[in-house]
Amino acid sequence: MRVNRKLIVLTLALFLAHLFLAPALRAEYVVLRSGQRLTVTGYQLLGDKYRLQMNGGFVEVPSEEVVAIEPEEVFTPIVVPVKPGALAQNAQFGQFIQSAATRFHVDADLISSVIAIESNFNPKAVSRKNARGLMQLIPGTANRLGVRNVFDPAENIDAGTRYLGELLHRYDNDLILALAAYNAGPERVQKYGRVPPFPETMSYVKKVKHTYDQQKLPPPATAAPKINSPT
Questions:
Q1: Closest to 60 measured CA to CA, from 19, 7, 22, 20
Q2: Which residue among the candidates 28, 64, 73, 118 is catalytic per the annotation?
Q3: Last residue of a domain, one of 49, 75, 101
Q4: Active site includes 118?
Q5: Would you give the DSSP letter of residue 126?
Q6: Are residues 66 and 43 in the same domain?
Q7: Does 94 share its domain with 196?
Q8: Is 136 found in the same domain as 44?
Q9: Tens-digit pLDDT string for the chain (231 aa)
Q10: Which domain holds residue 25?
């Protein structure tokens, strides 16, 4: 049985790095063909290799050795609870949301729900995968949509809503598939013919759908004032 010495050395180096470096606050697991699970804080696919970011530096792994990349659910970002109808009226970005909703025929509550889960209304947010701004646009998508300043709230919301509208049109207004494609990419939705079986994507779709549904709930009834009858 031939042993790939280079692979053994690489696996050992990864194991030692994983052993001695403390896990990041937000992380993902990279599962290797050997069964080893590495905690990483970011990754990039560069040709036939994955460049893994770990506490203290980077390591590269042949893509064929990576079996899966799984989110570490314990570190799911906390999202502020949403009140029905509140997000579309966000004082700071409400005007941009309403403008984009009208322009691209996308429900303002849906736009707000996506923003809440993507960035929690932080216009300067940058993800581990280099998605940016309120609607977390990756550079390729932002360039295709003509975005000049991805951190500008008006531009980001306008482009993100346009992209979301394109996905809704592509999937015949199937909200679940459109959200899955927004998170994982249309290519992966096409590959599986459904929501891709990635924990991150399935969790994302559930969160946005739940937030959106909450906004569509009727406001709580206000109790009529109690009038004391004269004695």
A1: 7
A2: 118
A3: 75
A4: yes
A5: B
A6: yes
A7: yes
A8: no
A9: 454 666 555 555 554 444 444 333 446 777 777 767 778 877 777 778 888 887 777 888 888 787 777 665 433 333 344 444 445 446 689 999 999 999 999 999 999 999 999 998 999 998 888 899 999 999 999 999 999 999 999 999 999 999 999 999 999 999 999 999 999 999 999 999 999 888 889 989 999 999 999 888 877 666 556 666 565
A10: 7-75
